[in-house]
Amino acid sequence: MEVKYKVFGYYEYIFAIYIGAGPIYWLPWIPLKFVEGAKLALYVFVVTWPLLHISRTTRFYFPGGSKVFLWMIAFFAFSIPSMLLSEMQPALYKLQNTVQILLLLFACGFLEKRGTIEAVARLSVKVFALFCLFSVVLIFIIPNYTSPLNGDLVLAQTGFGGSRTGWSPAIALYLPWVYTGIFVSGLIVWLGCFVMLANQVLVAGRTGMISALVAFLIYGVTRKNVKGLMLTFGILSAVYLFAINNMELLRLNSGGVGSRAALDELSTGRIEVYITSFKIISEYFIAGIGIGDITYAGEKWSIHNVILKSAAESGVLHAATIVGIFFVALQRGLRGVFQKNLLIIPAFLTVLSGIVSSFFEPVGMFGTFYSAGFWWVCFSICVSYKRTYAVNFTNEWRRLK
Q: Staple 123 to which of 16, 88, 264, 333, CB 3.0 to 4.6 Å?
């Protein structure tokens, strides 16, 4: 059943192409500067057009209203002390990234007023799925094509992302819009899931696999029917068997859970880093140690947890704003799900997947801006679930079940 949206013009198509191409950082045989320039041009158009529109109407709309806007302003404000204490380059990068997020949210608010944000999200998933299909084909044809971003990595390790830790978690964000079958159905669901999961498996991105699996299990368990539970159990069993038979590929063949040292080896050093991060936080509680490379006790540390890294770099108040942003998205998204608003379900699962990956990655949804663009679109959908046009569509989507 096709849903007729209020307006769907060239702006929506360009927005969808931009969001769908967000995780694409390079392409074989295409100059890196061209890829970067094209994405920058798309972003500038996406955020400039609404600003020009608002300047004429003198109206301002932010996804989720004043509560979400204040959380985002607090996120920016509590990072200022650490930016002032840091070197210029990492401080400017932090400032740029924060402003980019705020402008993108403003553009999402523009889409919400036009009643097209879900349609843009759906189209962007199709765009990204095409890139995933292209990636799978090329991994089999030219697996050792060197990444222009890192000479030590090849296509089979990174896909079109900067690394496996960027490509696999990005795929996990788009997956719920495919397997829920709300916006696509039939053969397209299976093909979309296949090409996206194939990319995750081929690059062996553990964080992306975990975040995708958690979101899928939540969806499967809450389906409350035998078919859904059996499918969930089948997928979980398949994942378990795959992990057992491919431990070296997934880097699970070292360490264990019998001791802290073994667990630290299994997590590629994350446990030791987490312990050190608590020491840093206790010493630099208010303003943090500073943004950029963290040096503590004569060693450099890379903290693979967004909240801990934020607290260490910019203080606990800044980390608290991240927790608040996550909480309001989950709270409002769950409320929409419980009210049977089917349009919210894939967006909520994407938000959940992004939050899970943020517990294992250094920047998550707040640092890799282009890769996380789709997450912020889904964030906007979740925090604005009370929009009139979304509620009006609820009964129409119920009939699809």
A: 16
DSSP string, 379-398: HHHHHTTT-HHHHHHHHHHH
Phi/psi for 319 (5° steps) reads: -65, -35
- Which backbone phi and psi does 152 adopt, to 5 degrees? -90, -5
Which residues are CB-neighbours of 13 under 8 A, at least 6 positions away?
A: 123
Torsion of CA 42, 47, 49, 52, to 10 degrees: -150
Higher pLDDT, 14 or 242: 14
Say which DSSP state 145 is in.
P
Using DSSP bridges, classify how beta strands 146-147 and 150-154 pair: parallel, antiparallel or unpaired.
antiparallel
Cβ atoms 300, 350 nearer than 8 A? no
The whole-angstrom separation of Cα 156 and Cα 143 is 5
- Phi then psi for residue 88, to 5 deg, are -65, -45
Work out the average pLDDT over 346-353. 94
CA-CA distance, 130 to 132, in Å (whole number)?
Answer: 5
The burial class, CB within 10 Å (0-12 / 13-18 / 19+), for 311 is: buried
* Model confidence pLDDT, tens digit, residues 25-60: 999 999 999 999 999 999 999 999 988 876 554 566
- Give the whole-angstrom CA distance, residue 312 versus residue 123: 38
* 21 exposure class (CB count in 10 Å sphere: 0-12, 13-18, 19+): buried
Query: Rounded CA gap, 333 and 335, in Å?
Result: 5
